[in-house]
Amino acid sequence: MGKLLIVGTLAFDAIESPFGKTDKILGGAATFIGLAASKFQVDSAIVSVVGDDFPQEYLDLLTNRNIDISGVEIVQGGKTFFWSGKYHNDMNTRDTLVTELNTLADFNPIVPEDYKNADIVMLGNLHPSIQMGVINQLSTRPKLIVLDTMNFWMDNALDELIEVIKHIDVITINDEEARQLTGEYSLVTAAEKISAMGPKYVVIKKGEHGALLFDEKNIFFAPALPLKEVFDPTGAGDTFAGGFSGYLASTENISFENMKNAIIHGSNLASFCVEKFGTERMQSLKKEEVEERLHQFKALTQFDIEIK
Fold first, then answer.
1. Is the pLDDT of residue 302 over 90?
2. What number of other Cβ atoms are within 10 A of residue 130's Cβ?
3. Where does residue 300 rank: exposed (0-12), middle (13-18), buried (19+ CB within 10 A)?
4. Which of 78, 120, 189, 239 has the most CB atoms less than 10 A away?
5. Alpha carbons 300 and 294: distance in angstroms, whole number
6. How far apart are the first and last CA of the chain?
7. Cα 287 from Cα 158, distance rounded (Å)
8. What is the pTM of this model?
């Protein structure tokens, strides 16, 4: 099995949606990425930081899924990153109510020695300087470096973001962010411009409308599975990234054709994530459920076109 290094936040979230609200629950990009990647045969580790208020049961949840947490720094007397948000009725827009960086404000990631030669590195949504700091610690060039980012860093750390984009292989962003980063409305043109910045592959997420995968010559589109209800979209993009990178690490095949499969596996897992608040659905998810929904994806996407 391949080695997957995950860098991102372990956090507390408090969420309000039309379906209800939560107190502080487990969240964070690295949490969702790790839980999704653990659905595959992969040797994974998380690099992150938390305060001593982070419950041992949350750390146990990760280790029980064979995720190495030796790269998780626990700051004594510190508080864990906290985010609170409220989703509107359409579930596509949200208001951030509270953001407390806490220990994340001074985060200096330390990559465990055993993962400095990781096959795939998944850089979750963090300050670009932190992402670059991880890349600089790697002892060998990974087969693939995947980066997730967001419009906040485009607004506040654009130069650093442009620099780290030069050193990666895959970028995953949503359609709004792709347009902001490039100034282009056409996603095809936006992908071309982003690719010129460095990445060989560009993944543009379109939420309930699926995802696009671009390389220099090819385009692939994967729909999202239509769902009756979406309780909480928090973590769906990170779950997608975890499924994408976890599948690639487990198959040890980074061809464009295999990335198509990775997109589907990522979309499949993300479709479960939104069915409950926080990580609840990903924690209870069974292998049989994953396989059954993959068959639904196959039925949704595969057919023969008759050309007369």
1. no
2. 20
3. middle
4. 239
5. 10
6. 46
7. 40
8. 0.96
Q: How far is Cα 281 from Cα 47, in angstroms, rounded to an integer?
A: 23
Question: What is the per-residue pLDDT across 258-279, written as a single tens digit (0 to 9) for each?
Answer: 999 999 999 999 999 999 999 9
Of 204, 198, 172, nearest to 186 by C-alpha is 204
Is 107 in contact with 71 (CB distance < 8 Å)? no
The answer to whether 127 and 157 have CB atoms below 8 angstroms apart is yes
Q: Are 153 and 177 in contact (CB under 8 A)?
A: no
Nearest to 17 by CA among 84, 94, 92, 87: 87
Q: Is 107 helix (H, G, I), strand (E, B) or coil?
A: coil
Give the phi and the psi of residue 205 in degrees, each rounded to 5.
-85, 135
The torsion angles phi and psi of 10, rounded to 5 degrees, stand at -105, 125
Spatial CA neighbour of 213 closest among 183, 257, 246: 257
* pLDDT tens readout for residues 197-235: 999 999 999 988 899 999 999 999 998 888 888 889 999
Show the DSSP H helices in 157-285 as ranges: 158-165, 175-182, 187-197, 236-251, 256-273, 280-284
pLDDT band for position 305 (cuts 50, 70, 90): confident
Residue 52, number of CB atoms within 10 A of its CB? 12
Q: Which residues pair with 86 in a beta bridge?
A: 16, 95
Helix (H) or strand (E) holding 104: none
Exposed e or buried b per residue across 140-157, where buried means at least 16 C-beta atoms within 10 angstroms of its C-beta: eebbbbbbbbbeebbeeb
Which residue from 28, 33, 36 is spatially nearest to 54, judged by alpha carbons? 28
Place of tokens 């146990």: 60
